Amino acid sequence: MGSLEIPRKFYMVKGKGDAEYKLNAFDKALLNAGVGNTNLVRLSSILPPHSQEVDPVMLEPGQLLTLAYSSYTSNVKGELIAAAVSVAIPQDPNLNGLIMEHAGPGTSEEMQRIVIRKAELGMEYRGFKVKEIKSISSEHETVDIGAVFAAVVLV
User: What predicted TM-score, i.e. pTM, was given to this entire model?
Assistant: First the structure.
C-alpha cells in the first residue's frame, strides 16, 4: 500500500447560512466559506510538521478537500450560534501542530476562547512549546434553521 502525500500548507475559512432544512443551512454555510462545491474529507486534529499558512487556493468543483472543521446547526429561532477552530503551531518546526474545534450556542468570542484553550492543553500534553495559536470563528443568529462552520483546510 502506497502512502499519501502529506499536506504542508493550510488556510482557515468560516461560513454561515440559514435555510428551511438543516442540510441546506449547512450547505449555505459551506458555500459562504468558499468550500461548498467540494467533497469534504474530514480529518482529525494534527497539523503536519513544517506546515505554512497560505491564502485560500482556487478549488475545482467536486475536488476532494481535506480539512478539520467544526459546525453547528440550530432550529431555535433567534438563537446565537458559533463555530470555531484553532491551529497551534509549535516552536520546533519538526514537530506537528494541533487543530482544535468547538461549536454550539454562544458567541464567536466564547468559541474562540475554548478552541485556544484546547490547543494550549493539547500542546502541553505533548510537551510541545507553542510558537503561535491562530483561530477563526463564525457566528449567526438563527432565523429559520441556522448553521455555522469553521475549518482549517490542508492543501
Answer: 0.95
